[in-house]
Write a structure and sequence with these properties.
7 strands; five-stranded mixed sheet; 24 helices; two-stranded antiparallel sheet; mainly alpha
């Protein structure tokens, strides 16, 4: 999202297309000239060569202007660096001044080689086309003269050095890592295709209708941010973003606001519009609600860490909306159980007293008349031996994920990982992770910060699906029964964590560039927004 502000990408693409077209035209003209030996073709080819050289100079100055701006921004960001900044990423950013000099040297070398090649090929009219003969007459027929006048040798040496340079910049380790990620991605795509071909809906028609109804209750990111803005201002006036959990917000904001309609909150926030989601957000209700919202924003901004976004949500949420508006992600749709499940048909009237996790005050129960349906309440499925309620909205998440994944190739899962990693110990959260994995979905982890994750590295290494917890033992047994290969699933979890622990220099160069630009964006934001503290 930062690059378009630095470089005029449409203009660069246009210049590159003109360059490519000119090269093709030069090759065609040279080929015809070899056959017809026409002075007109030689002059036309010379004109194209001059145009190609001018385009190369123009392209270099555009890039240099962008890099000059980038260097200035880096100098601004150098003075302030928060505790979450990756030292490797910052080191790469500080090398941009060196990259500018390297770019200048490469561009100058490229232009000299092109001029040399065109000059001794006779395609820089009005310069005489017999320069090879003239040089040999002046310097003699030595080996040095041969090398000097060979129009193809310099180009070949240039391409060899370019390949070696690119390999060095990418790094041999990143080449192997890129190949491994490619193989893993291809295996996931094959699994996704296989599961889409073999997917079968539930035999019970009522159950399947409820699954599809639930799946079409997505919430836009803009609606989620608007709801967050109202906390502490328009409702739940004692809301503390640093401490209140998702469970607190559901009990004291979502349920009271949706009580007059006795419906899910997404229907109210979306003004009755029903949409399919682009992603399913898996999270735990015991984590901070602000972290949940920040995780969704991090997914839209393609950032793996959400700690700084969480702080920015409180200090300048309009800046976050501005970023999302520029990238076109404000209308991205997400399925979040707290908003998309009708809480009035299940948990709004608990049989035990509830208390605010921060203040300790008792939470008033909902007094709506909406009928409640739990996991075994009739009517139940007719195609299963054990009773499973059709009207219950809390027992269909796995089926809903399967249907959405089977009918939408781009549907993905976002894992909003809390600071204590409780997400991976909750049975139904793990069930969603397992179902997404078996469907071959893309799974994206959003963590508080890499530093926080490092503190739990030992715990992550020992993480096994068999150790998950649930209030009912039979829930654990049911979820484990749905996973055919538990060792393979545990390995997949470790691979997801391994991507987060990968060092910056092992990333693909395109990923390094994106990471560096995101880091620079944060360093600049930390200066422009006075309310953004160091975290």
């Amino acid at each position: 999202q930062f690059l378009p502000l630095v470089f005029p990408l449409p203009l660069l693409r246009f210049v590159l297309r003109i360059e490519m077209f000119t090269v093709v035209l030069i090759v065609v003209i040279i080929g015809l000239d070899e056959i017809l030996d026409s002075q007109f073709l030689r002059i036309s080819g010379s004109f194209c060569c001059w145009m190609y050289l001018c385009l190369g100079i123009y392209f270099y100055f555009i890039l240099r202007t962008g890099l000059n701006f980038l260097v200035a921004e880096v100098d601004r960001a150098r003075g302030r660096q928060d505790g979450l900044a990756n030292p490797d990423v910052m080191a790469a950013i500080y090398k941009i001044r060196t990259y500018r000099r390297t770019l200048g040297l490469c561009s100058l070398t490229r232009l000299l080689i092109l001029v040399h090649s065109m000059l001794f090929s006779g395609y820089l009219w009005p310069i005489p086309d017999d320069m090879v003969k003239r040089v040999h007459e002046s310097l003699g027929n030595s080996f040095f003269t041969f090398v000097l006048t060979d129009s193809s040798l310099a180009c070949n040496l240039w391409f060899v050095s370019l390949i070696v340079g690119i390999t060095y910049i990418m790094g041999f380790s990143s080449l192997f890592a890129t190949h491994q990620r490619h193989e893993e991605e291809q295996a996931r795509i094959r699994k996704r295709g296989e599961r889409q071909r073999t997917y079968l809906p539930a035999m019970d028609e009522g159950w399947q209708q409820k699954v599809e109804d639930l799946a079409k209750r997505a919430l836009s990111l803009e609606a989620l941010l608007n709801f967050y803005s109202g906390l502490g201002r328009d409702y739940m006036h004692h809301f503390d973003s640093h401490r209140h959990t998702t469970d607190d917000v559901v009990r004291q904001a979502i349920i009271p606001l949706s009580a007059p309609h006795q419906s899910d909150m997404s229907k109210i926030l979306m003004q009755g519009r029903r949409k399919r989601p682009n992603a399913m957000v898996t999270h735990t209700w015991h984590s901070r609600f602000r972290d949940l919202v920040a995780s969704v924003v991090a997914e839209a901004l393609q950032d793996s860490n959400y700690a700084r976004i969480a702080v920015l949500l409180d200090s300048d949420i309009d800046l976050v909306k501005g970023w999302l508006r520029r990238t076109g992600d404000l209308q991205s749709m997400y399925w979040i159980c707290a908003f998309c499940v009708n809480q009035h048909s299940s948990i709004c009237q608990p049989s035990f007293p509830l208390r605010d996790s921060v203040t300790g005050a008792e939470v008033k129960a909902c007094d709506c008349s909406c009928p409640k349906y739990l996991n075994m309440d009739p009517p139940c499925r007719t195609d299963l031996a054990h009773p499973t309620s059709i009207n219950c909205e809390m027992n269909k998440f796995s089926d809903m994920i399967s249907w959405l994944a089977a009918t939408d190739e781009s549907f993905r899962q976002v894992l909003a990982v809390d600071g204590d990693l409780e997400l991976f110990s909750r049975a139904w959260c793990v069930a969603e992770v397992a179902e997404a994995y078996m469907m071959g979905m893309k799974q994206l982890l959003k963590i508080e910060s890499t530093k926080a994750l490092q503190n739990h590295r030992a715990k992550l290494k020992a993480l096994r699906i068999e150790d998950m917890k649930a209030s009912r033992v039979e829930d654990v047994q049911e979820i484990l029964g749905r996973i055919p290969n538990k060792d393979e699933f545990n390995s997949q979890l470790q691979r997801l964590f391994g991507k987060l622990f990968s060092t910056f220099w092992h990333l693909h160069p395109s990923e390094r560039l994106k990471t560096a630009c995101r880091e620079l964006r944060w360093q600049l934001a930390s200066q422009e927004v006075e309310a953004l503290p160091q975290v």
